[in-house]
Amino acid sequence: MQVSEGSVNNTASIKNLQGFDGSHPPDPKLIDSCVHCGFCLSTCPSYRVLGKEMDSPRGRIYLMDAINEGEIALNTATVEHFDSCLGCLACVSTCPSGVQYDKLISATRHQVERNYNRSLPDKLVRQLIFSLFPNPDLLRILLFPLLVYQKLGISKVLQATGLIKAISPRLAAMESILPEITLKSFQDNLPDIIPAKGEKRYRVGVILGCVQRLFFSGVNEATVRVLTANGCEVVIPKSQGCCAALPEHQGQTEQAKVLARQMIDSFADTHVDFVIINAAGCGHTLKEYGHILADDPEYAEKAKVFAAKVKDSQEFLANVGLTAKLSPLTEKNINLVYQDACHLLHGQKISVQPRQLLKQIPGVTLKEPIDAALCCGSAGVYNMLQPEVAEELGKQKAQNLLNTGADLIASPNPGCSLQISKYLQGKTISVMHPMELLDYAIRGDKLEI
Description:
There is one protein chain. The N and C termini lie far apart (about 55 Å). Helix 23 (about 385-400) crosses helix 24 (about 415-420). Helix 24 (about 415-420) links the parallel strand 8 (about 410) and strand 9 (about 430). The protein contains 25 helices and 9 strands. About 50% of the residues lie in helices and about 5% in strands. The chain folds into 4 domains: about 30-115, Alpha-helical ferredoxin (Fumarate Reductase Iron-sulfur Protein, Chain B, domain 2, Orthogonal Bundle); about 120-185, no CATH class; about 190-320, Rossmann fold (3-Layer(aba) Sandwich); about 335-445, 3-Layer(aba) Sandwich (Rossmann fold). Mean pLDDT is about 90; it is low at about 1-15. The protein has helices at about 30, 45-50, 55-70, 75-85, 90-95, 100-115, 120-130, 135-150, 155-160, 165, 170-175, 210-215, 215-230, 245-250, 255-265, 280-285, 290, 300-310, 315-320, 340-345, 350-360, 380-385, 385-400, 415-420, 435-445, and strands spanning about 195, 200-205, 230-235, 275, 310, 335-340, 365, 410, 430.
C-alpha cells in the first residue's frame, strides 16, 4: 500500500493508530473490487478542481484500505480527503468494474463522524447545519427574522462589505444561497387529502421536504396539482418531518435513523400505493431506508417496504403516463435545458424519464449541455462546508447551461436550483422545477420569458 507523500502521514510503524471502529467499516470486499484503472478520475468533480489523487475515488479507496489495515490513521490529513468528496456518485456510473463507491464513502463518513475529533469551528458549523436544516419547524420560526433581514437590505450591505466572509467563509456561503423569503413561505395551504380529478388511478403520498416546503412551496403545490390532474388521490401526513437526507449524506448516523423511523411512522396508516418525492437528494435517501435501518429489528422490514414504494415524481409520471392534456408554455416555441441532479442521474439512474415528460409539452425543444453529468457543487450541504470547490463547480455548471442558448432551465432539486441561480451571472433566465412546467402546461397558463 502506497499513498502520495504529502497527502497523508504514513504512520504504519506507529502502533494503536486511531482508525475505524468495528461497526460497519468500509467493506474490504468492496474495496478489493477496485482495480485502480482511473476511469473515475475524469468524472470526479473534486479531482477535476483540486487535481490531487487523494481527492479522487481511487485515492480515497486507497485511504480506506490503509486505515482498515492499520497502516495510517484517521486524522486531519486523511479526513480532509473524505470531506472533499461531494458524494455525487458520478464514479459509480463510470466505473467499468462496478465498484460500489457509494456504499464505501457512506460507511466512511459515518466512521469519521464517530471517531474523528473535528476542530471547534468545524463542529459549530456542522452543528448549526444539522440542527437547522433537517428541522422544518425550526426553519419556519426563523422565516420572519430572515424576511426582515432581506427586506431591510441588511443582506446586501453585509455581502457588499464582505464582513460575513471575513468572519467565516462557510457562513458567507450559507448566506449567499439563501432564497428570497416571501409571505408565501409562511403559508401551509395543502390539506391532508386532495382528491383526484376525474377517475382515480392511484392513491399516493407526497413528501414535502424541509427546504422545499418553506422556500419552494410552489414546487410542492405544483406537484400536487400535476398528480391530481393525472388521476392521483394525494395524501400528505402532517406529522412528516425531514427524510434524513442531509444527516445521512454527512455521516450523522443516529440522527438519520431517528428521522427515517419518524418518516416511516408518519405514513404507517395511509394505505398509499406509492410515496412521491420531488427532490433528488431526498429521493435517493428515502430509497435507502432499508440499508439505513438494516440493523433495527423493529424497523428493518418496515423500511424495506416503505423504500419500495418511493418514486421520484418524474419517474412515477413517466412510468404511469400522463392523462392530462398539455398546452404550450408560451406563445412561441422555447428552448429548454434540463439539469441532471446527481442523486437522480447517478443515485437513482433517472435521466430519460424527465426528458420524456418535458418533450411532451408542445413547443418545447430540449437542449443538452456539455458535461451534463458533472455535479453543480451543491451536493446537499457541500457548498456550505466546501465553498471554494463548490464555487468553481457552480460556475462551470451555470456556464455550461447558458452555453446551450436555452430560454429556461429545468432543475429537479432545490439545492441545485439555488446553486445554479447563484452563478448565472445576473442573466435573466429562470430556473424552474419540471413539475412547475408540467403544472403550467396542464393549467394552460403562460410563462413570461
